[in-house]
Design goal:
Helix content is 0%, strand content 38%. The protein is mostly beta strands. The strands form two sheets. It has a six-stranded antiparallel beta sheet, with no helix packed on it. Strands 2-4-3-5-6 form a five-stranded mixed β-barrel. It is globular and about 50 Å long.
């Protein structure tokens, strides 16, 4: 995304950058599974939710099943990568209706960057926003179409908007598609913030 920062629509989903206490993010992830019964293609950076079940067998450790998150869902975290697909080892995303293992960054105490869909106001900082999940990801890059919906800024929502991201290219509150720092607010692994 670095070539098109701030004023070009270049969604990439959610990408961990550090921990909430400013310590480095150490790459921690959990192995999850997306079942063939899920008929939507999924991408790197997609926010995901547990389905309430697991996959495995007597000779294989069971892992949590996940699907792409929807607006208003409590979030588990974001997809970092997919394990290789034997039928197409170069495939960066998961095709619809195919079983695929993925690595997920658990959202508890992790700071992410994401693109906002439009200009954000100074007063939006520290408020909560929902995610937009209706944009398709890229089958070329494998990157998600998820982004932060600044129009939903308020008290109860999925993410807490923490700051404009300092990407070294003079971020501004006038940017058309700003890169923002967010934390998961409505989450599977902890409690929510009341927002402001």
């Amino acid at each position: 995304y670095m070539a098109t920062i701030g004023n070009t629509d270049a969604r990439f989903g959610f990408r961990p950058i550090r921990m909430l206490d400013s310590s480095p993010w150490n790459g921690a992830c959990i192995r999850c599974h997306m079942p063939a019964s899920y008929g939507t293609a999924t991408f790197i950076g997609d926010a995901v939710v547990p389905t309430g079940t697991a996959t495995g067998s007597s000779n294989q450790l069971a892992v949590m099943e996940v699907n792409e998150a929807g607006t208003n869902d409590a979030l588990l975290g974001a997809v970092l990568a997919y394990e290789p697909d034997a039928s197409d080892p170069t495939l960066q995303y998961r095709k619809a209706s195919t079983a695929r293992y993925c690595l997920v960054s658990p959202g508890l105490n992790v700071m992410y960057i994401a693109q906002a869909e439009g200009i954000i106001a100074v007063a939006d900082i520290a408020n909560n926003v929902d995610i937009i999940v209706t944009h398709d990801g890229s089958t070329t890059t494998g990157l998600s179409g998820h982004e932060a919906d600044q129009t939903t800024a308020g008290a109860a929502a999925q993410l807490q908007l923490m700051a404009l991201h300092d990407h070294g290219d003079q971020p501004s509150f006038s940017d058309t598609f700003p890169i923002v720092e967010v934390r998961v607010n409505e989450q599977e692994l902890g409690s929510d913030s009341a927002g402001t």
